[in-house]
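Chain X:
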Amino acid sequence: MKRKFSIGDFGIYALLALVAAIMLYPLLNVVAVSLSSENGYANHPLMIFPHDFDASSYRWILTHHLILSSYKNTLLITVGGTMISMFLTATLAYPLSVLDLKGRRIFMSLIVFTMFFNGGMIPNYYLVRSLDMIDSLWALMIPGALSVYNMILMKNSFEGIPASLKESAYIDGATDLNIFVRVVLPLSGPILATLTLFYAVGKWNSYFNGILYIRSRENWTLQLVLRELVSQTETLLNDNTDIAAIPAQSVKYAVIVVAILPIMCVYPFIQRFFVKGVMVGAVKG
């Protein structure tokens, strides 16, 4: 029998629709302002659709001399750093998920200890400098490549895989490496997709480490370039009389769109793994 639609259901859906609208409005406003003229923004600052359509802000941003190089650097850091982080996380989580591993509790205690206590910013800076990684993109990929929290999520997910599958593989002559690659990883798609998203978003939005370790403008990441564009938009536009007519507010909002667009394009493809991956990793099997 079909369940009747009650007043309570209507209230819940209405509340969810209101929350969704509240969450969606800032994004629509940012996109609309970025595509509007100065007069359009002045007359309709709370718009959700562009007024007096003007795409000059995007033309200026995409021709800025540092945008392309910063995009390349950020993509390299995001892709390379995520691959390094996932490799380290998976290869550490798998042996710790083996219940009969000798010294397992001691290793876990030492690893978890690093979640709560670390040397701090200055020792980390001296460490990176001693490794000769200052003003190098490696400084944005190697330090902090392994997240203990993410490793624990992956370890718990690995522990939820039935032991009988591993025993069957051992009987067939498989090694630990074969079991890890051909049994464990293929069965861990949701948690792998979820942690890949976590690492990728973190690398893409990395800002503070860039300030600490990067010196030359050629190695700037997208976030550092966007900071300059947002904080000095009026100055940059006024210095060039050919583009002085470009609306400053539209440029700032266009910068935001440029920064979030790649992540927004990737997220829908792994959204279906997201909740499942977190739940599987958060509850020990």
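Chain Y:
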Amino acid sequence: MRAIIFFFISICGFSVYSQNKEVLYDFIDLPQSLMLNPGAETNFNFHAGVPFLSQFHVNAGLRGASIYDVFADDGRDINEKIEITLNNLTSNDYLTLTQQLEFVNFGWKSKKNEKIYFSGGIYQELDVIGYFPKDFAVLAYQGNQDFLNQPFRLSNISGSGELLMVYHFGYNKKVNKKLTFGARAKLYSSMLHIRSARNKGTFTTVETPQGNNIYQHRISNADVTVRTSGIQSLREIEGETTSEEVKEAVNKLVGRALLGGNLGVGVDIGFTHKIDDQLSVTGSVNDLGLIFYTKDVETYRARGNYVFEGFETPVQFSSESQDFLDELEEAIPLDTLSNSYIVARPLKVNGSLKYSFNPDDDGSCNCFLEGERPGYLDGIGVQLFSQFRPKRPQYAASLFYYKRWFSFLRTKVTYTVDDYSYYNFGFLLSTHIDKINFYISANNLLEYTNLAKARGASLQFGFNVIM
């Protein structure tokens, strides 16, 4: 069992965290900024992302520990380091995996009204979060001898994961010189989904010196639910499989991606408001939507109470273990249901306040409409981010500095405080050579010198044609 905890902590060192893209947010030189705020200012006539290369985004990190905490060559026993790391982690720490890949991204200015810009596309998204089951990790690693009469909470078991395709179309309008508003409609096609949250119940070991045994182990008011969709039909693909079985599984996933999965709808809304020529405020809400799971669904639910006596759990891989499991299943039956269910998308909220300066008097910017005042080459400000999760929202706050060096080179530097770090520095570089654009960004730059100690690492890049 200690090996399991050891493996879990190792995985923690290279997990992936929330979908905050603070370096890209409000970087209006890139059309991808519209994906974060459909109401961002736009100065394009047309854009098209290079298929499969317009945006690839991945974040990696961990809140509460790092690989170095366990594997450091410091002379200490590894079991001691695992135990210290285990004690430092809490039930509010989490592992997540968020990754996006754009297949298509395009946009154009309306011929009837140059103040309107349309955009659309398709992208794939993977979003997984699992909270650290602190109570049961301690129980598995340290046992229950030192935790008599202390309840281990089943509510520690919480997490969700989903693989889906998103089809979207956006509308952006410059209402007047001060206000730009935008909205984006989304159609979700879910390929795989699993979720377990709001579980209840406890496991407690109590002393019973007057009973038949010294200890009594109680499972009280257990109510654990796991909802799945798209997994049951793939369950036979386990262990060694033939090429035909693999091909069948791939075909099923592709079919679900092409609007054959569980469907949902959502919307993004956002705005940009210029308080004056130099000061502006933005805000957006992303993934305000639901997915309706009606196909290939299975829900597993266990409810009940159970009491057993003895010095240790009777699951010892002996002939008596099956009798115990049969008795446990009878007391806490596992129901398998095929009921449809609905899950809200993880809502994301962004906002920023920016002060622009250093006017582009010579017009090298070429980023403003005819008849309007030239833009600015520099900008500083603050950004805020929040994402709703099964247990609690995640938050982040960033300071940033934007700089347009030449007509072909623009950069942005950010300093972010979030759940993972108080010294997260990010950098974005965007090049514009004729109509070809390439951009790349990274976060947690100071931690790249020793990735074993890193609590986070992030990378995003893409190619566009912009006119």
